[in-house]
């Protein structure tokens, strides 16, 4: 994944939002959440998919407290409205937190 990302960066001056959002998910699924966050932080104009991708990355890694904090940040700072994917992630996180 890092090799592919390196080639994309080399041949594209800036990653498109679509590729950045996909990279957030891909890095997360490969176990490199720090790279997911680095890409998210580098996106100037984040959309709902950017926020949902990072929220899903935290949830995927069982980082429920971080995910909830991230959701609160999304609601306060982003100006985007949550959708069914956002609420599905939040519902899953809350359910896991209650089990613990």
Q: How many separate structural domains?
A: 1
Oligomer: single chain
Share in helix: over 70%
Q: The biggest beta sheet, please? A: none
Q: Report how far apart the termini are.
A: 33 Å
Q: Looking at this structure, what is the CATH superfamily?
A: Tetratricopeptide repeat domain
**Regarding CATH, which class?**
Mainly Alpha
| Element order: H for helix, E for strand | HHHHHH
* Number of DSSP E strands: 0
Q: What is the C-alpha radius of gyration, as a whole number of Å? A: 14 Å
The secondary structure category is mainly alpha
GO molecular function: RNA binding
Pfam families: PPR_2
Keywords: Repeat, Transit peptide
Protein name: Pentatricopeptide repeat-containing protein
Describe this structure in words.
- The model has no long low-confidence stretch (mean pLDDT 87).
- The relative contact order is 0.12.
- The longest helix has 16 residues, at 84-99.
- The chain is an all-alpha fold and 100 residues long.
- It has helices spanning 2-11, 17-29, 33-42, 48-60, 64-78, 84-99.
- The protein has 6 helices and no strands.
- Helix 2 (17-29) runs parallel beside helix 4 and helix 4 packs parallel to helix 6.
- The chain has a single domain, classed as Tetratricopeptide repeat domain (Serine Threonine Protein Phosphatase 5, Tetratricopeptide repeat, Alpha Horseshoe), CATH 1.25.40.
- It holds the Pfam family PPR_2.
């Amino acid at each position: 994944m890092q090799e592919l990302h390196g080639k994309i960066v080399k041949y594209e001056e800036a990653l498109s939002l679509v590729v950045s959002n996909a990279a957030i998910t891909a890095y997360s699924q490969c176990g490199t959440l720090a790279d997911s966050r680095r890409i998210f932080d580098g996106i100037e104009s984040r959309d709902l998919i950017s926020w949902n991708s990072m929220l899903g990355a935290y949830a995927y890694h069982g980082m429920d407290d971080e995910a909830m904090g991230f959701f609160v940040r999304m609601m306060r700072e982003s100006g985007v409205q949550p959708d069914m994917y956002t609420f599905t992630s939040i519902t899953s996180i809350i359910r896991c937190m209650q089990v613990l």
